[in-house]
Input
Amino acid sequence: MSVKCVCINDKNKPYQIPANKWIKEGNEYHVYFIITVLPQKQLGFLLEEIELDDSCIPYEFFLSQRFMFNPEDLDKLMQLIKDCTETKFSVEEVIKQTQLETVE
Output
């Protein structure tokens, strides 16, 4: 399962991540794995379209705040969070860490 999203923040690319492995604002992506990243205690995403490999270390995930989701995909997003992690996130916490807007 994956959930469609759109990048809304591609600023402050870490120098460790090559340009060809970085997200681009306005582009559509598909989240297929979600984890809580530390020390930020935020949701981190793996994307179908970009693989962060050993060349990107220490970065392994994209922070959720860089993406927006369609409101009708919220249930699918919550199910993916449940499927991927034992961490309990409320709908309010997910909304706080991401933006829910219409994806065209």
Notes: The chain has a mean pLDDT of 87.
